[in-house]
Each structure stands twice: as structure tokens, then as C-alpha cells.
Amino acid sequence: xxxxxxxxxxxxxxxxxxxxxxxxxxxxxxxxxxxxxxxxxxxxxxxxxxxxxxxxxxxxxxxxxxxxxxxxxxxxxxxxxxxxxxxxxxxxxxxxxxxxxxxxxxxxxxxxxxxxxxxxxxxxxxxxxxxxxxxxxxxxxxxxxxxxxxxxxxxxxxxxxxxxxxxxxxxxxxxxxxxxxxxxxxxxxxxxxxxxxxxxxxxxxxxxxxxxxxxxxxxxxxxxxxxxxxxxxxxxxxxxxxxxxxxxxxxxxxxxxxxxxxxxxxxxxxxxxxxx
Length: 276
Prior knowledge:
Blueprint: H1 5-15, H2 40-49, H3 62-70, E1 80-83, E2 89-98, H4 102-111, H5 116-122, E3 127-132, E4 149-156, E5 159-168, E6 181-190, E7 195-207, E8 210-225, E9 230-231, H6 246-261, H7 264-271
Antiparallel strand pairs: 1-2, 2-8, 3-4, 4-5, 5-6, 6-7, 7-8, 8-9
């Protein structure tokens, strides 16, 4: 029997139809004009360039990430993927975003999870549905996504995924609050599976002409059984079979971030604080 808000939220999420793009009923939405095709040529180039892994441990481990990303300049590998000696897999993505400010990303993560049609704007060729696990709608506040879990239906490459992303305070991973930008951090697993097995971090720092996002994913990092808090062996092999491979996740992330950055300032101006 469903007797909690979380269970009810999962049930409501599963009832959502999963389809790409907009249908007739979606066309009347006020943000429909922002549904734009993605750059398939760019995605193909990224895929070809990063199909093979970097050497083991070429990407910094999660334990060193906050310190590494907080330093000026760039790291040795800002895009690519590799196995880690811990047994996890690391993925790095760098996205330059002229004209975008870091605060727009805080707004976006708070705004898009309340409606599948909003989520689809991000990646029309991959995103299908989004819903907050608590069953509630949009909340006020730039960082109101923290403490909530976003349930999503999407394609990662050729793999269909129903994911759950629980957003946490960046300070819990050691990120300082006093810098010119924002950090979005989350723990991920699959809907209905009592396991969290992945960390995701989007470190966004403002630049003279906009901002840049430095994303990291750690697949199979610190997996835990959510029902008891018991740790599981630290290996991506413990993820449910059929999960995305690192190269596909890299292409997915760089495609969606580059795509949304192209119109995020206009979307924020129209629907963000003080928008029409």
C-alpha cells in the first residue's frame, strides 16, 4: 500500500507518459518557442573524440574534487572519462557558456523539475518526463531544488533510464560558498531501486563573457542501500544492468548543457524572477 508522499510521488511519476518532443497539448505552453533542435553534428564529433577512456585515475577522485575545482585555472583533463583505482568510473565535461550567468543554473534546476515540457527543452532528443518525488510543484527560491529528489525519464545514448537525483548541499562535499558561481550536487540511482550509486557535480563559475560549467560524474562511487544506509562494494558493476556507459553519459551531458546554454538567458528573462 502507498502510505507516504514519496511512494505517491513515484506512482504519479510512473504514470507520466514517456515520449520525446511536444505533442498537440504541449504546443500551447508559453515556453514552447524554446523547444529547439539540438546540434547533432556537434554531438557526433564529441562522441568520436571521446569514445575511448583516458588512463586510469586521469580524472581526480571525488575526495579531491572540491579542492581541485576551487583552484584558478584548469585541470589536466576537463573532458573525458576513465576508470578509477577505487573501482568507480569518472566522467568529466567542460562547457563554455557565453552570455549565461551561474545564477541562471540555480534557477533552472529549481524550475525545470515541475513539468515534463520544461525538462524536454533541455534535451529534446533525449528527455521525456520529469517530476518531483515529493509530489509538489515549483518552490520559490533560487536553490530550492536542494533537499528534493527529481525523478526523470530519459535516453542516455540508446539506453532508456528512469533516474532519481537527490540534490544535496555543495558544502557536504567540501565546496566553499564564497566564490563567484554556483555548484549543483546530487546523488543518483534508478527509480524504484533502493540504491544510490552515482555522484554528479556541476561546478559553474562566472567568467568575463558569461560562465563555464565543469561537470563531473562518479559512477559506482560510494554506493549505498538507501533503506538501511548500508554501503555496497564501490564498483559500477553494482549498478542495475543496462545503465549508461561513461562515453554515452559524456555525450549526453555535453549535448544538453551546450544546447540549453544557447537560450537559457532568454528563457530566464521570460520566466525567471521578474520575468513576464
